[in-house]
Design goal:
alpha+beta; 2 domains; six-stranded mixed β-sheet; four-stranded antiparallel β-sheet; 12 helices; about 30% helix; binds ligand BES; binds manganese (II) ion
Length: about 475
Amino acid sequence: MYNLSKNQKKQYLDELIDFLKLPSISADPEFKNSVIDTAQWLAKSVSKAGCENVEIIKTKGHPIVYGEKIIDIKLPTILIYGHYDVQPPDPINLWDSPPFEPIIKKTKTHPEGAIYARGACDDKGQTFMHVKALELMISKNELPCNIKLMIEGEEEVGSNNLESFVIENKEKLKSDVILISDTGILSNNKPSITTGLRGLSYMEVKLVGPNRDLHSGLYGGTVANPINILCEMISSLKDENNKVTIPGFYEDVLDVNIDERKEMQKIPFDIDKFKKSLNINLTSGEKGFTTPERKSIRPTLDVNGIWGGYIGEGAKTVIPSEANAKISMRLVPNQNWKKISKLFIKHFKKIAPKSVQVKIKTHHGGQAYLTPTDSIAYKAAHMAYEKSFGKAPYSVRDGGSIPIVPMFEEILGCKTVLMGFGLDSDAIHSPNEHFGLFNFFKGIETIPYFHKNFVKLIKQNKV
Ligand code: BES
Ligand code: MN
Ligand code: MN
């Protein structure tokens, strides 16, 4: 339907570069104004695409950008969700080029070139595909349905203010399906649609020992060292089979039946390539499950960061007074993240020796999600990928989390379709994040097919 011309491609890419230059780091209060600037930039671009009622909606945190194009209220409505905030770029010294000075480089995976910048893939580049696809359809008068766009600025910090916005604006956001591009495909010649997201429970723990850092000669051997204790406690959270040892952790997990697991094995996965891409000699995970299973249908627990004591130059002889860690648990359908957080707290307090005090904070979390694969929307997405890639897409359950997706369904009563275009190797959340130009343009070409097929299938279904 839309084969982008050279000029169009250049234009879209130049605009994406401008978008990526804005450091919309939601986690860092120092970037509050940059986040606002980014929302304003995006709102302008959404207006330019032809949307109406474009608003920058203030929240207690970062603003939400909203826009819509209602062509006929009798036609189906698609609600597009994305996020314009990005992860902090740290560690900055590991970037080959500055994170907010986008550059294009050719790589083996991306021979057509990829754009390097924080947020290139997650999720500015993918969100921007929708803005451009809309612009194309509106300019040609070919938009087949109504569109509502809701792009938030707090996804990477837990979407804390989105729920109340959605609750208060149920009518405004009313739609037939929610469409999100914030996931990936297997590879550029193996398209796939994400059919599952994992849930998340994120904890922060602190162990407090003596009331101050102590001389490790004068006191060493007489008091508990909170870092030593923390290491022992953390290592006990998984057993020799890499099962999480928190009592009740697996209680609600729905086992995936053998037929489904067999079906999963048909999805191409090259373990040697996987190991090579990460420079590791051996994979590791829960006994009895394959690597693709471990990262999609099974829950897990990981330490994300650990700190305490002296970490400056040279050597300082101290017994630290405190030790800290951030620990996340990825969850699967039917596990309740709030229950899991409680089980974690109970267990972690129980295994702590009396020599330390334990303080635990629950950060954000969310439920896992499975998208239906027998819906009209899923069929429309399937047809769209098949058309633009020339190959039927695989259905793949992903390991990442987008906690607001189950919340949308609960509040708006609306299912989601996950049409992502990134690659696992695009280094989201890592240094040198990038997004393939092939993927960016393919996204812009695929989205209009979805809209068209969705409307067509709904009409067919009615007769
Ligand atoms: N876009 C990602 C989630 C994702 C990426 C899902 C790739 C599937 C495939 C999203 O921006 C993200 O990073 N989510 C966080 C959770 C959030 C609450 C910070 C995550 O998964 O860690
Ligand atoms: Mn994202
Ligand atoms: Mn992210």
